């Protein structure tokens, strides 16, 4: 099942995007991107990997002279890019980044909100694969606070998902609240490692990277992690 079989691509997804924690995450992405690419960005190309409805692509398009490309497995994402004037000129690639080759090397790859949707068993290999296509990889995602045992992991999931579900209800995104409730049930039962959803801590991403000889040069945490049991983070890998 594709993500946009469950989420309203033209309404809910855009409402999700406009939230202070996601704004903070996007700001972190741009800061780390420009920190390493420098300015001006003429002649440089960034891939928005797992682009969805182009939330990240639109932000990247605001950087003067930067070229942006996008990719996603979901054909509805491609259709969205084709039918929206602010995105229709962005080169789009339909591919499975866990299996397919990327079309070329990029100056940077940005992957926001995608990592936790990969099965845990494939995450380390994803990082290794991306290291062949760029000297700079930025993985931004939501995750839970570090834990010492399964009971604490589930407690952190309860707190973080509870916050997300309450925020979805507060903003009238009923379907998102239902989906996140289903994901929380998977977390409670330990059945989430199916490509649908599995939140982990930033430390686990660092461990995934270590398995394939990589190490992030920075990990930014956004939001009050202790209060929410989790939050957003941005991990930056310099791969040169």
Topology:
Layout: H1 12-17, H2 20-37, E1 45-49, H3 55-61, E2 67-72, H4 75-83, E3 92-94, E4 108-112, H5 120-130, E5 136-144, H6 150-170, H7 174-189, H8 202-211, E6 218-222, H9 225-228, E7 230-238
Parallel strand pairs: 1-2, 1-4, 2-3, 4-5
Antiparallel strand pairs: 5-7, 6-7
In short:
The protein is α/β, with parallel strands linked by helices and 240 residues long. Helices cover 42% and strands 18% of the residues. Helix 5 crosses helix 8 and helix 6 (150-170) packs antiparallel against helix 7 (174-189).
Written description of the protein model:
- This protein has helices spanning 12-17, 20-37, 55-61, 75-83, 120-130, 150-170, 174-189, 202-211, 225-228, and strands at residues 45-49, 67-72, 92-94, 108-112, 136-144, 218-222, 230-238.
- It is 42% helix and 18% strand.
- The chain is of the alpha/beta class and 240 residues long.
- The radius of gyration is 17 Å and the shape is globular.
- It has 9 helices and 7 strands, in the order H-H-E-H-E-H-E-E-H-E-H-H-H-E-H-E.
- The protein has a 7-stranded mixed sheet.
- Helix 5 packs across helix 8 and helix 6 (150-170) runs antiparallel to helix 7.
- It has one domain (3-238): 3-Layer(aba) Sandwich (Rossmann fold), CATH 3.40.50.
């Amino acid at each position: 099942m594709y993500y946009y079989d469950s989420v309203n691509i033209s309404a809910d997804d855009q409402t999700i995007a406009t939230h202070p924690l996601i704004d903070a995450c996007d700001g972190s992405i741009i800061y780390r991107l420009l920190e390493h690419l420098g300015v001006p960005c003429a002649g440089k190309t960034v891939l928005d990997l797992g682009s969805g409805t182009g939330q990240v692509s639109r932000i990247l398009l605001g950087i003067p002279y930067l070229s942006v490309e996008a990719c996603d497995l979901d054909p509805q994402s491609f259709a969205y890019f084709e039918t929206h004037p602010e995105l229709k000129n962005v080169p789009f690639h339909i591919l499975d980044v866990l299996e397919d080759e990327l079309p070329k090397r990029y100056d940077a790859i940005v992957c926001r909100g995608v990592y936790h949707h990969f099965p845990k068993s494939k995450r380390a290999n994803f990082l290794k694969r991306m290291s062949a296509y760029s000297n700079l990889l930025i993985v931004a995602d939501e995750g839970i606070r570090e834990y010492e045992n399964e009971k604490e992991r589930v407690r952190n999931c309860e707190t973080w998902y509870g916050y997300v579900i309450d925020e979805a209800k507060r903003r009238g995104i009923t379907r998102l609240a239902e989906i996140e409730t289903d994901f929380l049930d998977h977390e409670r039962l330990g059945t989430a490692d199916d490509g649908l959803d599995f939140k982990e801590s930033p430390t686990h991403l660092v461990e995934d990277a270590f398995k394939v000889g990589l190490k992030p040069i920075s990990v930014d945490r956004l939001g009050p992690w202790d209060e929410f049991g989790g939050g957003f983070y941005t991990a930056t890998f310099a791969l040169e």
